[in-house]
Amino acid sequence: MKDKVQIHRYTINFESSPNALTTESSIAGALIKYKGGHGCLQPWPSLGDDDLNFHLLSIIENRPTEQALACLKCCEIDSNARDMGIDLFRNLSIPKSHLTVPFSCDHNISTDIYEQWISHSHIKVKGGNDIETLVNYLEKLPQHLSIRVDFNSSLEPNQLVKFTQNLSHDCLQRIDFIEDPFPYDPEAWKRFSELTRVNFALDRGPFDASIGFAVRIWKPSIFPAEPINAPVCITHNMDHELGRRYAAYQAGIIKSEVTVHGTGNFESSKNGTGFGMDDYLESIVWGDLT
User: Fold this and answer.
1) Using CA atoms, how far apart are residues 123 and 236, in angstroms rounded to an integer?
2) How many whole angstroms separate alpha carbon 241 and alpha carbon 276?
3) Is 65 within 8 Å of 230 (Cβ atoms)?
4) Which of 144, 182, 246, 260 has the fewest Cβ atoms within 10 Å of its own Cβ atom?
5) What confidence tens digit (pLDDT) does each residue in 6-39 have?
6) Helix residue spans in the chain (DSSP H)
7) What phi, psi does 11 have (nearest 5°)?
8) What are the angstrom distances between the C-alpha of 244 and each of 61, 171, 191?
9) Domain segments of the chain: what residues?
10) Domain 5-87+276-288 in CATH: superfamily?
């Protein structure tokens, strides 16, 4: 690219596999610095993304992928704010976030876990094809929680039907949506959403998709443009804190019927200029992307 791009590589380690299709407990990503602004680039090859080096090469060759464009858009917003000395979170109301529970979570209910449940209105459970274990876990959740289940396209349609049939009527009524139950097919999603009487949410699917789901998941660090075909629920990409702060910012400015998003905890103490984290971004080592 014409302007210099700098990079800081990082690795995030998870206590357990972060989703049903990822066996590794760590993921590689990169912070990008462009025109004085910062962004986060963290693909998930296990979910079908091209690897990190592919996206970095696309920037070098000035043919950025969609995910690279999303990162550069974040850099641009951050850069403009830093140039003007603006804190992007000042006077911005960050919507509530659901509580995300990992796929291979410990199903023993500790005091800490219970306290987390009480402080949230929605919970998002990373599900897999161990349906019996998942059903038992969901049935234990406090009555006040609305439930979101993300299968990361790990089920067969008949497994989805079995899952919904095994839930009690009360638990089924508290399902807010099921995210990516199986790979997106508009007619199949429409049919099985009607059959199970459960709303679907689409994450991994065509940008212009419009059939078979009630909610569109938008990860700002994956897609540069806001979806327009359904109510939008913004979530982070289980990425670097900078990427999560970008998601929180977008959730704060979006106009959507969805009021509870998935941006995680937000530490206002790290606000500064742009997306914040000023001291941290100054302290890490940056290298030229070549």
Assistant:
1) 15
2) 10
3) no
4) 144
5) 999 999 999 888 898 998 889 999 999 999 999 9
6) 52-60, 66-83, 111-118, 131-139, 157-166, 169-173, 186-196, 241-253, 278-283
7) -135, 135
8) 27, 30, 34
9) 5-87+276-288, 96-270
10) Enolase-like, N-terminal domain (3.30.390.10)
Please give the Cα distance from 288 to 264 (Å, whole number).
Answer: 31
Domain 96-270 has CATH 3.30.365.10: no
- Cα separation values, 219 from 85, 125, 216, Å: 26, 17, 10
Of the candidates 40, 96, 79, the one whose C-alpha atom is nearest the C-alpha of residue 252 is 96
d(CA 130, CA 224): 34
pLDDT surpassing 80 at residue 216: yes
Q: How far apart are CA 170 and CA 243, in angstroms?
A: 36
pLDDT class of 1 with cuts at 50, 70, 90: low
- In Å, what is the CA distance from 277 to each residue of 206, 220, 229, 241, 253? 33, 19, 34, 9, 20
